[in-house]
């Protein structure tokens, strides 16, 4: 049994229940807490609560989650395949889906969906909890992802990623406007020592380079195209926050000022993949349209566009 009981401090008042729990217990996702709030495992002042409940100072929060409840499997999401051959597949991942199992996300991952669909026809080089997974996208980022269907293809794709031979292009809506129309952000990254769920710029971290191009902007928001030279965890998100252009809705790196949706989906989308087929050598290119969450914000930008 997981049992916690605590009172809300005055400085914590005004926060949603699900966000507060995800902040206090960062090893679990906000969707994890929403599930247990819904099944009455989290009470506020000994009453059934809602995820959206706004907490007040001195509220009593009680958590009771049994071991069997914690291990209830989450159903694997549908798999959206845009290309498939005998060696690989290109998948379009929706925001809100975890790429592979990790602490707080033991089921309901894209890797689970791939295993359900392809069965044993997947590479096992990345381990049993990452069948076919060659690279990953953050949970709240959407877009194109490669799956290896055998070890030969996996080795070839992994080598291409290591040699920077895979073109990965993203689009983002950010708060603010970059100082230049194009540029490269070159800043090493490492896990933040104070918060292990975050990455931060550190001189002794791993090298990381992100290229950006300003497509359009108004006074408040910018539409950017980005290309990865390296592929570090949270790389684009940290780099854009570093130049004071955080990704819209990315509260982890941009703070509350960037929050515009109730969901955690951020305005970052892996829109293009180009690479040589690891077996045939054929040049392949795939594109993905921006999701609906981008639409109204792009309209705001392009109605008052400044193509400087």
Number of helices: 8
- Please state the overall shape, judged from the principal axes of the Cα atoms: globular
- Low-confidence region ranges: 67-73
Major sheet description: 9 strands, mixed
Count the E strands.
15
Mean of pLDDT: 88
CATH top level label of the largest domain:
Alpha Beta
- Here the CATH topology of the largest domain equals Pseudouridine synthase
Give the count of structural domains.
3
Strand proportion: 25-35%
What's the helix-strand series?
A: EHHEEEHEEHEHEEEEEEHHEEH
Summarize the helices and strands and which ones pair or pack.
Elements: E1 2-7, H1 17-24, H2 30-38, E2 42-44, E3 47-48, E4 60-65, H3 67-70, E5 81-84, E6 88-93, H4 110-118, E7 142-148, H5 151-162, E8 167-175, E9 182-186, E10 189-191, E11 199-201, E12 209-217, E13 221-228, H6 235-242, H7 251-254, E14 268-276, E15 283-287, H8 295-303
Parallel strand pairs: 7-14
Antiparallel strand pairs: 1-4, 2-3, 2-4, 5-6, 6-7, 8-13, 8-14, 9-12, 10-11, 12-13, 14-15
